[in-house]
Structures are given as C-alpha cells and as structure tokens.
Specification:
By secondary structure, the chain is of the alpha/beta class. It has two domains: 4-47 and 368-423, Urease, subunit C, domain 1; 52-356, Alpha-Beta Barrel (TIM Barrel), CATH 3.20.20.140. It has twelve helices and 19 strands. It has helices spanning 70-79, 98-111, 134-139, 157-168, 193-198, 205-222, 234-245, 256-260, 282-294, 309-312, 329-337, 341-356; strands at 4-11, 16-22, 25-30, 39-42, 47-50, 52-57, 82-87, 115-118, 146-147, 173-176, 189-190, 202-203, 225-228, 250-254, 299-300, 373-383, 402-412, 415-419, 422-423. The strands form four sheets. Strands 1, 2, 3, 4, 5, 16, 17, 18 and 19 form a nine-stranded mixed β-sheet that branches. Helix 1 (70-79) packs across helix 2 and helix 7 (234-245) packs parallel to helix 9 (282-294). It is globular. The relative contact order is 0.16. Bound molecules: N-carbamoyl-L-aspartate. N-carbamoyl-L-aspartate is lined by residues 58, 90, 150-151, 177, 275-276, 303, 305, 320-322. N-carbamoyl-L-aspartate binds at residues 58, 90, 150-151, 177, 275-276, 303, 305, 320-322.
C-alpha cells in the first residue's frame, strides 16, 4: 500500500497543513512534511474534512439492481465525499434477517469504496406486524445496530415499545420513519395551500409530528435510543427540542432537500420533486435550518433514493417518492450553511458516525486516526447533470442547478477512492 502525502490541505478550513497517510492511518500532520516514495496529492486551496457518513442511504440491492446496486451506490457515495453509508432495509427481499444484512455487508466490502453498514428492518417484511430477528442481525457479521422500517412507519405503539426495549440491551437504535399512516392515506404532497390549488391529496405535518411526539415519550419511558429519520416540519423540530431538553435519548436527521426545496416545486407536476416526507413550506425550511444549527437536529442524512426511469418519468400520482442525494449533499449543505466547516464536519461526519457506532469514522484528522477523509474545493461551482452522476438512476431534483463545492478526493483507510474528482474503481 503506497503512502500518500497530502500537501497544503486546510483541515476544517484552517491553515494549510500536510497529512501523511500510511497503513490506513494518518501517520503525521504538519507543515513541510516529506516522505520518500509517497504519492503526493497537491491539496492547495482544498478543505479537508473527515470522510462523510450517511445514516440513510437506499442502495436497492438486493431486488432493484436496475435502480442502484451496492457498487454503483458506493461509487456515488465516494464521489460525494462519503467513507461510510448505512444501507436502508427496504430492499427485496427486505433486510430483516441475518442472511440479507450479511449479503449487503459483503457486497459493500467487495465494492470496497465506502464502508457499507446495513440497517436491519424492525418488523418482518416491513409489514409492521411482528418484530424481525433483531438479535440475530445484531449478532451477525454485519453487526447491525440501527433498525428501521423506513418507507413505512412502525405505527403500532406496542410494537414500537417492544423494539425500543429489545435494542436497548445492546445499545441499538430504532430509526423511525415518522408518518401516521391513517393521516396520509392517498397523500401525494404536503397538505397546504399548494396541494389545495393542485387538487392533490395532502400529507399533513401533524402526521409526522404526532408520531414523533408519541415516540419520544416511548423512548423516554423505555430509556432507549430513538432516531428520527428525515425530519421535515417546524413542529417536529419543536417537539425534538423539548424532548432533548428533558433528557430523552433522541437524535434526528434532516435531508439536504428539506433544507432547500419547498412544496411550490410540485406546481411543475414533475415527479422528480415527489418525496417522502414531502417538500414543505418555507417556514419549515427555516425551522429545519435553525434546528440544524442549534443541534436539535444532529445530522444531515441524504435519504438517497434512486428510482428507475419508469418509476419516476410518469404521472405524479403513479411516481415513487424519493430523490438522489449522495453526490449533491455536501454542495447543498455548503450552499445552505456557508463555509462553517466544523459544523459541517459535525453534522455530516462525526455525529452520524457516533449515532451509528462506526468507530473508524468521524474522527478528527490528527496523527493516529484512521485515514478516512475527503478533500473539497469550495471555490469551484458546478452544474448538476443527471446523466453525469455515478448513480444508476437520474432522479436528482437539482438538474441544471449550479452548486458550490466540488469533491476532489476521498480516502478510505488511506486508499484513494476518488482522485481528481474521478472514482478509482
Ligand atoms: N424517501 C423516499 O421518498 N423514498 C424512500 C422510502 C420512503 O421513505 O418512502 C425510498 O426507498 O424510495
């Protein structure tokens, strides 16, 4: 394994420094470093961040390899600056057994571009009726710690309580897709003035908020860890803020698209903007940004949801919800937060690594740490081209948009997975 000498990188946006990567770790950080035989990477003007960690990625394998595979999703992740992603369980078959999570884990290792950490389903087949084999998945080679029925809500409070009790034993976490299904039957978009105007059935904010309110109480009662997926409303931010103030063990994520886009996008009837939970109002967007800044929302997670053309290029009502995220997350967050590098590192690397229990990730870029990092050119703006993305699917809501921040290089345990903006496999 060749040593790598990164010259002149601004760690977390600070003063230029050199980083020597050796044997999978950062061997040295300093100025004027030299290393015989090392491959030199000129990082003048580039910002170094710990490799990003995505707690919410849909990789679609097994089952929908036409939309994404573990390999293609891993390429997209590396190009987005990620060194670890957590793969959601709504595959086909569902990742509700040790066998399936081990398969996804192995596929991730074979791809070798990011660490793929499978998430296990909470209930068998995501059907919300009985608990899946949580213990078997936790004890498997994939060492599952996050369980989620994402795409569906664990709506039955008794089942949710049992799941929280079960994972408490090994400090696992239930990642809830908060959507009271009885309040969203037939829903197509956010319930509000735009849905009324377009005549589309609405998905009211209270469908999310009522489940989060219930779940923080359940988590408090059980003393277990709850993680709230893709928070999308101002009311949800308030509930989580109050729960945290009371000491409830709750963490939360927001997606880049909920930080930027609003429900007016549906006026185009372009299903690329159809997503679950739906795009909301500008008031919600502002509250989510505030929640992200003040730490009520712990992390940014992509909810990367690739869909094949036939599932997206159709009538709004028939289109599947979901949008791509991995390759555009950092640029969108940079656009929203500005160059607050330490905050970005916290919300996109350190905190997600902590929540997921991924010890090798989200570390400070200091001597001795695993060499998982990414180099970003903050000054280059680029235009998002759906067919130019590495994902097998093209359903990005940012097509044609010019965004700041280009990922120049990514390193996984000292091995370049992206160099010069090009994936290495
Ligand atoms: N977030 C989405 O809009 N879609 C997700 C599942 C889901 O949460 O509905 C998907 O798997 O496509």
């Amino acid at each position: 394994m060749t040593d790598i000498l990164i010259k002149g990188a601004r760690v977390l946006g600070g003063e230029p420094a050199d980083l020597l990567l050796r044997d999978g770790r950062i061997a040295e950080v300093g100025t004027g470093l030299t290393a015989e035989g090392a491959e030199v990477v000129d990082a003048t003007g580039l910002v170094a961040l710990p490799g990003l960690v995505d707690l919410h990625t849909h990789l679609r394998e097994p089952g929908r390899e036409d939309a994404e595979t573990v390999y293609t999703g891993s390429r997209a992740a590396a190009l987005g600056g990620y060194t670890a992603v957590c793969a959601m369980a709504n595959t086909s078959p569902v990742a509700d057994t040790a066998g399936v999570v081990e398969q996804v884990y192995r596929l991730g290792q074979e791809a070798g571009l990011v660490d793929v950490q499978p998430i296990g389903a909470v209930t068998v087949g995501l059907a919300g009726e009985r608990l899946a084999e949580l213990g078997a998945m936790a004890d498997s080679a994939a060492r599952v710690r996050i369980f989620s029925d994402d795409g569906f809500c664990v709506a039955d409070p008794r089942l949710m309580r049992r799941a929280l009790e079960y994972v408490k034993a090994f400090d696992g976490v239930i990642a809830q897709h908060a959507e009271e299904p009885r309040l969203t039957q037939g829903a197509q978009m956010h319930e509000g003035d735009v849905s009324a105007k377009l005549g589309l059935t609405g998905w009211p904010a209270v469908a999310e908020e009522s489940i989060i309110a219930r779940d923080v109480l359940l988590a408090e009662h059980v003393g277990a860890r709850l993680h709230v997926c893709h928070v999308s409303t101002a009311g949800s931010v308030d509930i989580i803020r109050a729960a945290k103030a009371r000491g409830v063990r709750v963490t939360a994520e927001v997606t880049p698209h909920h930080l930027l886009l609003t429900h007016e996008k549906a006026e185009s009837y372009d299903p690329v903007y159809k997503v679950n939970p739906p795009l909301r109002t500008n008031t919600d967007v502002q509250a989510l940004r505030e929640g992200l800044r003040d730490g009520t929302i712990d992390i940014v997670a992509t909810d990367h949801a690739p869909h094949a053309a036939e599932d997206k290029e159709c009538e709004w009502a028939h289109a599947r919800p979901g949008m791509l995220g991995l390759e555009t997350a950092l640029p969108i967050v940079l656009d929203v937060l500005g160059e607050q590098w330490d905050l970005i590192a916290e919300r996109m690397s350190r905190a997600p690594a902590r929540i997921a229990g991924l010890d090798g990730h989200g570390n400070d870029l200091v001597a001795g740490a695993p060499a998982n990092l990414t180099l970003i050119d903050p000054t280059t703006r680029w235009t998002v081209e759906p067919t130019g993305l590495a994902s097998l699917s093209h359903n990005t809501p940012y097509a044609g948009m010019t965004v700041p921040g280009r990922i120049v290089a990514t390193f996984l345990r000292g091995v370049p997975t992206v160099l010069d903006g090009k994936v290495q496999k």
